[in-house]
Amino acid sequence: MQVRGVNELRRMFLDYFERNGHLKMKSFSLVPHNDNSLLLINSGMAPLKPYFTGQEIPPRRRVTTCQKCIRTGDIENVGKTARHGTFFEMLGNFSFGDYFKHEAIPFAWDFLTKEVGLDPDRLYPSVYVDDQESFDIWVNEMHIDPSRIFKFGKEDNFWEHGEGPCGPCTEIYYDRGEKYGCHKPDCTVGCECDRYVEVWNVVFSQFDNDGKGNYTDLIQKNIDTGMGLERLAMVVQDEESIYTVDTNRALLEAVCKLAGINYHDDRDKDISLRIVTDHTKSCTFMISDGIMPSNEGRGYVLRRLIRRAVRHGRKLGINHNFMKDMAKNVIDHNKDGYPELSEKEAMILKVLSEEEEKFNKTIDQGMNILNEQIEKLNANGEKVLSGEDAFKLYDTYGFPYDLTVELLNEQGLDACKEGFDACMLRQKEQARAARKHSNYMGADATVYDEIDPHITSEFTGYDKFEDMGKVLVLTTEDSIVEALSEGDKGTIITDKTPFYATMGGQQGDSGVITAGNFEFEVSEAINLKGGRIGHVGIVKSGMINNGEEVKLSINAAQRNATAKDHSATHLLQKALRTVLGEHVEQAGAFYDKNRLRFDFTHFQAVTKDEIAKIEKLVNDAIKADYPVVTEIMSLEDAKKSGAMALFGEKYGDTVRVVRMGDFSTELCGGTHVSHTGAIGSFKIVSEAGIAAGVRRIEALTGDNLINHYQEEENLLNNAAMLLKSSQADVCTKIESLLDELKKLKSENEKLKAKAASESVGNSAEKAILVNGVKVLCIKAEAEDANALRTLGDSLKDQLGTESVIVLATDNGGKVSLMATATDAAVKKGISAGIIIKESAALIGGKGGGRPNMAQAGGTDASGIESALNKAEEIIRKQLGE
User: Fold this and answer.
1) Based on CB atoms within 10 Å of each CB, which residue in 81, 394, 822, 825 is the most buried?
2) Range 212-231 average pLDDT
3) Full-prediction pTM beyond 0.85?
4) Crossing angle of helices 345-379/267-288, nearest 10°?
């Protein structure tokens, strides 16, 4: 068998399946596309899931790939064994409803034996125990002795992941020889030693699992295969592990050279050598796909790998920054299959250097702190570091929690995960609640403060909606980065842009920034200090690097609608000063694609007549179709021309003047229509005071006004339908209904009063005399508090000028208590307010009022009698009895 390198084996595999009708596709990014179930691509089929599920149509029914993958689920074992690694390449051939078992099995056998040249006598297939079809293909078509075929159960040879497509698989094992074995008499395929290695796995996706253990046949049967490239190279090159195949060996030897040691001289150092080798490779590939170090998501995975590699580099005696040099080695030996490594080399090296430097500033101090904590734990006979101490290492010294745990585990100790998580949550909540960290200028500190002050942006959007620009700065929400990739939220700053940045009340443009397959959706352009324009948004696809040329395209419809509103505010301000007076000054403004808002100095509400005059002036100016002309001139010349300046605004030596015929002239840096007729129409929809001496008008123009009128018409139509009248008769019909309602309400009040009066009958005769005042405390039947008050007034009339009445009623558990007294009774000491206040508690309520009338509400009807007795007791005291 000819010894072949990793890059050659990759080419051989892809070329073989391309010759057999497969579409050869480049490796997908490590960043999943529209797949929130994964942080990172971890298998060959992961980026192809939409083709398997039918969400997307595959470019061809036969596809082959070599997919770069990252797996960190067992990161704690990486380095400790030579089997585990975080980065690997997965070779795969896939069929989406095309061929199945009779083709897939021969493809695998033919490639391994004829293309690669593996000895057939050292290959052993395995099948799912109930998959007789695959067993028969191996025996009858591939002519494999049945004794060489191993049958395994679901755990080994049936692929499924909960509900959905699943199926049996067949695997091919290679016997590496006795030197890799355990030498046990029963050592065979399936043994845990390194002699028999699985090199190929073919999954037959033929069933649908309903999630309850019931399986039905899929209409479209698919093939999903996987073969680890490094593992294949290990077999072909007869190497002991994936770490010593040609491309990885070169990196491993480079680490050994830096550390001044040899591989296999020291077990503990071998662990660190493997960790640095593996993690450097993973980090290089991750950064090439636009992943940046951070404290969340895949960025946290990257940071964790970098810092773990740096820490183990220190253990090997490498005390200077070395990640950049190791990354160069990765790039040199892998660019054949992944040319993007060379394309992104500068960015990869810069990111690694900066992250390593950042960690090196704190690692020594952090290690000292941790060692002190370990000594304390040992001295106290404790085994678990508190979550607070672990969080301090993370927050102050940049130690990922997993790194702290790893360091503790090496000493037979652990850390409290619950305590750490609680500290992390508390910090996030405090950050959200506060956000009060300020920079030198007293403003909220942001990532933009870190930008080179020499960087500026040129705005080119006064006369164009598209332009080309060079990327000068890329940021995430909390740091400056060298690249942004799919799913990243951030800001792009270019040397020139047609995007207008939010300023002077005008909402910034939205749109897209593109370059090849890269697309960045700009939600808003913002104005940053130093003459920079930031494009804030999210990467929809692809990746962008600092320094690349991009195409910037604004949302033309939004710009046009915003320009109409902005130009209309200039006309509005002139109209306001004409109608209301020269005291009117702009006190604030906002205009976007939906509406305009204008705040101005004025000291009373604008009347309907004034609003009508203002609207007429603005609409007359629109009809006049004045040309909108802009000029750049000195501030002094602008003032001489009569241009209005924004109240309190500071201007430079030169200014931009916007003139709309002879009607309006203002200093303004915003975007406008080319002639006032383009505004279409103008309507004020609200006017209100917002502060002392400041009023606010909201208005609509153009299509927004048409939409507003349409909504108003729809409301009128619905009202007419409900009233069963024409639109013209709606007001007349409403007036008629209001008159009718008024009459009915009056009649209803009379009926309720009559019913309440009848409910007490001749109760007035039951009044008692207390020091010359007639007192009546009774329960009545009244529908509500109004009826109760009316009844009280009626009883006062019956009892005479010196009387006090307390009434209670129960309406389905809603209890009302009311007291009323004549003026003469009040003069004798009666206070209805005190009577109600002190007796309301007995009905489970509160109340009060004036001396001559008070009321309360409660919920305890069982306390009515007690409340009335209490009221009589209070009355007697007030009258001095």
Assistant:
1) 825
2) 90
3) no
4) 140
